[in-house]
Amino acid sequence: MATAKIAIVFYSRNGNTEKLAEAIAEGAREEGAEVALRRVKEIVSEEVIAHVPGWKESAERMAAKYEAPTTDDLVSADAVIFGTPTRFGNVSSELKAFIDSLGGLWAKGALNGKAGGVFVSTSTPHGGNESTILSAYNFLAHLGFIIVPTGYTDPALFAGGTPYGASSVSGGGSDQAPTEIDLAVARVQGRRTAQVAKALKQAN
Ligand SMILES: Cc1cc2nc3c(=O)[nH]c(=O)nc-3n(C[C@H](O)[C@H](O)[C@H](O)COP(=O)(O)O)c2cc1C
Questions:
Q1: What are the two backbone dihedrals, phi and then psi, of residue 154, each rounded to the nearest 5 degrees?
Q2: Closest ligand 1 atom to the C-alpha of 172?
């Protein structure tokens, strides 16, 4: 039986997207997948980071816990799931900067046929969770991924998340977020992506 390798590549400033990433990893591992959790690097100066309360501490904590993604992480993965906080209804520049470094892989078609997905954290209920995921679908298509949405494949999707990918609403403070339902949807995304990745691997 083939084991799928899943790379979860995310940006998180305050830890909400990170919690979804961990739940997706849990779901993927339930399907026997080997998971690499990777947080993309900060792209703004230390001076800017220092101006926002908590950003420096949070960035240092996550940098110590997660390696930054490399192109090798993507090439060796059977599936890549990208996570981002929303920024004005769109993908964060930190994740986008990493995506924009993948031209070499795009030119070689190195990611063609891998399973791919997206998850997101917003601050408000309609603050761009779906638009952010759909925006990210653009780069997944260009890079040749087979997009794996969450759909309504599990009862949890009728209570939370989106049919495009897991999401959570942080509401400005991270105490109550993500909810148990948000985390359940994230685990569904991990399981489902791992199932598809395994099937694609067996078919090739
Ligand atoms: C510059 C900027 C733009 C943002 N734009 C939105 C937005 O359009 N909609 C929204 O709901 N939240 C927005 N947010 C809030 C974050 O997306 C939200 O707090 C998210 O949960 C943070 O995830 P993290 O804890 O993983 O960093 C924005 C935050 C920043 C700093």
A1: -155, 145
A2: 19
Q: Residue 113 C-alpha to ligand 1 middle, in angstroms?
A: 31
Distance 176 CA to ligand 1 centre (A): 16
Please report the domains of the chain, with CATH numbers, ordered by start residue. Answer: 5-203 (3.40.50.360)
Is residue 124 in contact with ligand 1, taking CB distance under 6 Å?
yes
pLDDT tens-place string over residues 185-200: 999 999 999 999 999 9
**What count of other Cβ atoms lies within 10 Å of the Cβ of residue 156?**
21
Separation CA 153–CA 167 (nearest Å): 15
- Residue identified by tokens 């078609």 is 109
Asked whether residue 155 carries a pLDDT value surpassing 70, the answer given is yes
Q: Give 115's DSSP letter.
A: E
Which of 87, 91, 133 gets mutated to test ligand 1 (max ligand atoms within 8 A of its CB)?
87
Phi, psi values for residue 194, rounded to 5°? -65, -40
Length of the chain: 204
